[in-house]
Amino acid sequence: MDFLELLKAFFFGVVEGITEWLPISSTGHLILFDEFVKLNVSDSFKEMFNVVIQLGAILAVVVIFFNKLNPFSKKKTQLERKDTYNLWLKVIVGCLPAGVIGVLLDDILDEYFYNFWVVSATLIIYGVLFIVIENLNKNKTPKIDKLSDLTYKTALLIGAFQVLSLIPGTSRSGATIIGAMLIGTSRFVAAEYTFFLAIPVMFGASLLKILKFGFAFTLSEIAILAVAMITAFVVSVIAIKFLMGYIKKNDFKVFGWYRIILGILVIAYFLILK
Fold first, then answer.
1. Which residues contact 94 (CB under 8 A, 6 or more apart)?
2. What is the pLDDT of residues 145-179, one digit of tens each?
């Protein structure tokens, strides 16, 4: 087993763990990171790897928010358990648009959208949107500042924004946070609901990719995937706690500027240096 490949997998896990939850696009960063750190694997494994690595990140959400997400907790009152069931139903409703369209367009997205032009454009476009929306919302009071205040209609609308994240570079969390804030949710509610939306979406996307790849993994491929997923889990715990603390006192503008600068650097790299 090649130690160098496992070290590369570790760094892919670090990139995934940081970028999955910050609204800066994990898929976009993984595609770009692959330009500099090439895994010695087949194209089909790499396509599957870039999605399934997200399972490690998702487990971090389950662990951190386990009590809030667990409808069977004996510590909860009957009303609290009912609220938890309703939360899960709203998450499922929010996942429907991206789930349906993602299955229908999976091959088209892989073939035509996984390139640096698309990643660069979406990084810049959504970076600008973050700055514009934060400026528009500067003196506004959010209409929704608790998860329990989300209606099923609002959940579905936020889920519709999540469809945009099927395009690499958009950022699933970025698209849903922007959508939620446009609808009138607070930054905290937008971020938290985005985390919960990721659970069924990523499990579904990972299952789809694994079935498409098949289960004929080599020992080396299993080790690479395991190292990346475990690393993504640990780094995600840190990233989620950082973000939830950060947005209590700050807005998302810094992520908008980061996206714009990164998008410009990517275009410059591929046009001038590549």
1. 155, 156, 158, 159, 162, 193, 197
2. 888 899 999 999 999 998 888 888 888 888 999 99
Nearest Cα to 50, choosing from 270, 233, 229?
229
Residue pointed to by tokens 């947005």: 247
The residue ranges of every structural domain in the chain are 3-273
C-alpha 140/C-alpha 137 separation (Å) is 5
- In contact, 184 and 153? CB cutoff 8 Å: no
DSSP-assigned beta bridge partners for residue 144: 185
How much helix, strand and coil, in percent to the nearest 5, is found in the chain?
A: 80, 0, 20
Report residue 9 CA to chain centroid gap: 19
* Average per-residue pLDDT for the chain: 88
Phi and psi dihedrals of 28, rounded to 5?
-60, -45
% residues pLDDT > 90 (the chain): 46
